[in-house]
Design goal:
The chain is of the alpha+beta class and about 210 residues long. It is built from eight helices and six strands. About 40% of the residues lie in helices and about 15% in strands. The relative contact order is 0.12.
Length: about 210
């Protein structure tokens, strides 16, 4: 099943439970999972208030978004929601990130149009090097909303070609600390972390 999310959902670590359970997109997602929520709240509807992992309807919950800053933020918000409401899904390894390509690289080979997909700048450069004698057309991927069904199947849906990152913490306590640091209400620790460690992520900045 594919369930579209239009825009960004609530940051469930910054939002009180009443607003969380008033959010249609959040409650609809939990109902799709089928397992309910682990958190106790009088605001949760009756069909959500009891958590039972055996009722989970799917072997994989795959979060897919565009490969840009907004898309990464949406991923974080979705994972944060799951961490807040049903963390066992993460702890037991049911949650995945579906990677989407950054670049579409098209060219002609033996008279036929061919398209390759690069998920990082490094992969794009490798393809350019490999096909250095070919006239390549390189463009940023249009994003999920404009992809053709064929491209969606090849890059995102097909079990044979898609790329999945399993959201699986090695340390539950460390996972909790990171969520609070990056998605919680305390701004000062987050600002300090960025000041001290921001330089480590300069190569990951999307400046194109």
């Amino acid at each position: 099943m594919i369930m579209p999310i239009r825009g960004k959902i609530l940051n469930c670590l910054k939002t009180d439970l009443k607003k969380i359970f008033e959010s249609e997109i959040v409650t609809d997602l939990i109902r799709v999972f089928g397992c309910g929520v682990e958190i106790r709240s009088k605001n949760a509807a009756k069909d959500l208030s009891e958590f039972n992992l055996d009722n989970l309807k799917y072997s994989k919950i795959i979060i897919v978004s565009d490969a840009d800053v907004d898309g990464f933020h949406i991923r974080c918000l979705c994972v944060t929601m799951i961490y807040k409401l049903c963390p066992q899904l993460i702890e037991k390894g049911y949650v995945y990130i579906g990677e989407t390509p950054l670049f579409e690289i098209s060219f002609k080979e033996k008279g036929k149009e061919k398209t390759l997909f690069a998920y990082t700048d490094a992969e794009r450069d490798e393809i350019k090097k490999k096909y250095s004698k070919v006239n390549l057309k390189i463009q940023r991927s249009k994003g999920l909303g404009e992809n053709t069904p064929e491209m969606m199947w090849e890059t995102t849906m097909s079990p044979e070609t898609r790329r999945l990152i399993r959201v699986m913490p090695e340390d539950a306590k460390q996972m909790e600390e990171y969520f609070k640091l990056f998605m919680g209400n305390e701004i000062t620790p987050r600002k300090k972390y960025i000041e001290e460690n921001g330089h480590l992520y300069l190569d990951d900045l999307d400046l194109d």
